[in-house]
Specification:
Blueprint: E1 3-4, H1 15-27, H2 37-57, E2 64-67, H3 70-82, E3 90-94, H4 99-110, E4 114-118, H5 128-134, E5 139-143, H6 157-167, E6 170-174, E7 193-197, E8 208-212, H7 227-230, H8 238-272, E9 279-281, E10 292-297, H9 307-316, E11 319-320, E12 322-323, E13 327-328, E14 331-332, H10 336-340, E15 351-355, H11 362-388
Parallel strand pairs: 1-11, 3-4, 3-5, 5-6, 6-7
Antiparallel strand pairs: 2-8, 7-8, 9-10, 10-15, 12-15, 13-14
């Protein structure tokens, strides 16, 4: 029995997306910038996908800029705003951003920009008062992740966005983990820029989008033929974008029922592991992504089993989960997300994440809980034996 519980890393492309991509590659493979019939067919596919992705956000068609994924969308948001200015300004991000935001912020710092990283509480939440206090006269952009992929915590984006808007700063949110799992309405949400990724909502890898509120000006990252409203030059990956479009449309249609189903499964797994004292929940238990379960592993004697170890043991049992920290050059590094929440370096190596999806069943949840208990007990026992030896 194999169970995949790493849907925050990537989702399997749904059959409808695969079929759409195959049809496009077979019959509508033209360059959408070409004026002849072959180009027109491809351009029609492209605009259909734009309509479908826009529908997921309740956004106007001309506000959706297709990219190669969420990382590029994040970079376009940060650099697209930063390059508008001839002199360094002030940028605010949260201390638990994805590296696609954190690394551009570091590069801006090296170029003389002032960057403020908002602190989070023990549950990984940014307090609106922290944003108010951090704003300066030269703050031009605030970027705060909507749903954190490692700990599942949701941020108060509506309140944060309104604070930024009232100050006159642009507001960006990385909604890669949220889109298709929770409703997003950019008509009412005070956001200027929103990043999306196809492969997080059962579309193909290699496609993403940035919502750009009408009237917001960005400087493009890529020069060329001026595709995507002159914001993302290069011939569009029409087949992948078409798969993204159908996946977005289906996600929007299924959202009311699928969100509730995932919340039920998520809470079922939390409940079944509630008495395992070696598992401490990370992230906000209530303000949380509907599909997300995460823990920090701790042992009664203070020794700890790394998240990487548990991932390998669960994989041997046929269950795919992920560690909450990154591996660099073969060494497990402390998670910067957990460290920002106040965890020690030692504890920040011990995060695990189980994320659920369309194919997850109650039986999967029940079996995973049983196996995780057994694997954790065996790992802790082996740790004890090695210490005695």
């Amino acid at each position: 029995m194999q169970i995949y519980l790493d849907y925050s890393a990537t989702t399997p492309p749904r059959p409808e997306a695969i079929a759409t991509m195959q049809a496009v590659m077979t019959e509508q493979w033209g360059n959408p910038s070409s004026l002849h019939e072959w180009g027109n067919r491809s351009a029609t596919v492209l605009e259909q996908a734009r309509m479908q992705v826009a529908g997921l956000l309740q956004a106007p068609l001309d506000s959706i800029v297709f990219t190669a994924g969420g990382t590029e969308a994040d970079n376009l948001a940060i650099w697209g705003v930063a390059h508008r200015y001839s002199h360094p300004q002030h940028l605010i991000i949260s201390s638990i951003e994805h590296s696609a935001i954190e690394q551009p912020a570091q590069r801006l710092e090296q170029a003389g920009w002032q960057v403020t990283r908002l602190p989070v509480d023990a549950a990984g939440r940014v307090h609106p008062t922290a944003l108010r206090s951090a704003l300066r006269d030269n703050t031009v952009l605030v970027s705060c992740i909507y749903g954190q992929s490692e700990i599942g915590t949701l941020q108060p984006i509506e309140e944060l966005g309104q604070i930024a808007r009232d100050h006159g700063a642009l507001f960006h949110t990385d909604a890669v983990q949220v889109a298709g799992r929770l409703p997003i309405d950019v008509q009412t949400l005070p956001v200027d820029l929103v990043s999306l990724s196809s492969h997080k909502l059962y579309g193909p890898q290699g496609a993403g989008a940035l919502y750009v509120r009408p009237g917001v000006e960005l400087v493009p990252l890529i020069g060329g033929g001026g595709q995507e409203f002159k914001l993302r030059s290069g011939t569009q990956a029409v087949a992948s974008i078409a798969g993204f479009g159908i996946a977005a449309e289906l996600a929007a249609h299924e959202l009311p029922t699928e969100t509730l189903r995932l919340i039920h499964l998520r809470d079922r797994l939390f409940d079944q592991l509630a008495d395992v004292c070696e598992l401490a929940i990370t992230g906000d238990r209530r303000q949380r992504l509907p599909h997300h379960v995460s823990f920090c592993i701790r042992a009664a004697d203070g020794e700890q089993v790394s998240g990487k170890t548990l991932v390998r043991q669960m994989n041997l049992a046929g269950i795919g989960i992920s560690a909450g920290s990154a591996c660099h050059s073969g060494k497990l590094a402390p998670s910067p997300i957990l460290k920002a929440m106040g965890y020690s370096d030692r504890a920040a190596k011990c995060g695990i994440r189980l994320t659920l999806g369309r194919h997850t069943t109650e039986a999967d949840i029940d079996w995973t809980a049983v196996v995780l208990r057994q694997v954790l007990a065996r790992s802790l026992n082996e740790l004890t034996v090695s210490q005695v030896g």
